[in-house]
């Protein structure tokens, strides 16, 4: 007997929560974590936390920050601690520290496929700025899995309220 579980939300950090901005918009916060400067919109992370805590989604980390996302970033960014991390030890630099440049074998696609295979049909929201760049790599799998919604924020803007509105509408 299976229970109905909320959709998973696979969450990246750099380019999604941490926008590469030179000047911070009003209300944004900034901090140094593990030697890296991160800039984020606390109203965006508050909405994500609200979606998670209300049970509308189950947030899981899918980021090169790996276990450090939970250890170093969750609380300062306003997200809950104890979220599952999905890199499976495969995290390789992408995002701000070095783009994949369209190379095949994107580890995050493999991780997302494994997540989807664990519970076939469970809806997934995957938020990663590299999804647009990796469209050739991910396109066939995503076309075959319409229960996966992808959101690819601009790395200079990060996840926006408009994108969160679209996610909530899809939910």
Report on this structure:
By secondary structure, the chain is α/β, with parallel strands linked by helices. Residues 94-104 have low confidence and may be disordered. Helix content is 32%, strand content 15%. The strands form two sheets. It has a four-stranded parallel beta sheet. A two-stranded antiparallel sheet has the order 2-3.
Care to give the gist of this entry?
With 171 residues, the chain is of the alpha/beta class. The chain has helices at residues 42-53, 67-77, 107-118, 135-143, 161-170, and strands at residues 8-11, 29-33, 36-40, 58-61, 124-127, 148-151. The radius of gyration is 15 Å and the shape is globular.
Order of helices and strands: EEEHEHHEHEH
Decide which structural class fits the backbone.
alpha/beta
Mean pLDDT, nearest integer? Answer: 88
End-to-end separation? 23 Å
The major beta sheet can be summarized as: 4 strands, parallel
Number of helices: 5
Low-confidence stretches: 94-104
Strands side by side in the biggest sheet: 4-1-5-6
Question: Per the principal axes of the C-alpha atoms, what is the gross shape?
Answer: globular
Q: Give the number of DSSP strands.
A: 6
Helical content class: 25-40%
Strand content: 15-25%
Gyration radius, in Å: 15 Å
């Amino acid at each position: 007997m299976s229970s109905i579980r909320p959709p998973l939300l696979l969450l990246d950090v750099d380019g999604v929560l941490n926008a590469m901005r030179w000047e911070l918009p009003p209300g944004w916060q900034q901090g140094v974590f593990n030697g890296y400067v991160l800039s984020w919109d606390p109203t965006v992370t508050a909405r994500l936390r609200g979606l998670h805590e209300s049970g509308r989604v189950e947030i899981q980390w899918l980021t090169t920050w790996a276990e450090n996302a939970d250890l170093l970033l969750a609380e300062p960014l306003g997200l809950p601690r104890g979220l599952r991390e999905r890199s499976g030890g495969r995290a390789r630099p992408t995002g701000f520290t070095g783009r994949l440049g369209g190379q095949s074998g994107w580890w995050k696609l493999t991780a997302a496929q494994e997540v989807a295979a664990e519970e076939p049909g469970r809806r997934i929201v995957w938020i990663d700025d590299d999804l647009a760049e990796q469209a050739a790599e991910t396109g066939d799998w995503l076309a075959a899995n319409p229960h996966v919604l992808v959101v690819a924020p601009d790395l200079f803007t990060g996840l926006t309220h408009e994108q969160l509105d679209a996610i909530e509408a899809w939910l």
